[in-house]
Fold:
Amino acid sequence: MADKPKRKLRAPKTIREQATSNSAASKKPVKPKIRTKIKKVLAWPFRTLAKPFRALNKKLARFRLYRLLTRLVKFLSKILLINYLIGSWQELKLVTWPSRRESWRLTFAVLIFAIVFGALVASLDFGLNHLFKTVILGTHK
Structure:
C-alpha cells in the first residue's frame, strides 16, 4: 500500500497575527447585501419620479417660507417618531419567531418554574412565620 501523506498541523495564531488579520479583514470593502440590491432595483421608479421634484425643491429652497415649512415637517416627524417606527418595523421583520411547539414547551417550562419557586417561597414563609411565633413571641399552638 502507498503511504498516505501526513497532514501538517498549523501552529495556532498569535494574538498579534489575529489582530492584524482582523484589521485587514475589516478594511476589505463590504459587498452589498442582496436586500440592498433589491431595494435599489425597486427604488428606480421612485427616483425617476422624484427628479422633477428635486429640481423644484432647489428652486423653492430660496424662499424663507418653504425653508420654514421643511423645518416644521422635520420637527413633526421627530415628534411623531416616524423614524423610530420605521426602524422598529424593520427590526420586527428580522425577528425569528419560535414555532408553536417550541412556544408551548417554553410556556410549560416557565409555569413549572413559577410553581416550584412559589412553593419554595411559601414553605420558607411558613417556616419563618412558625420560627418567629415560637422563638420571639413564645406562643405555641
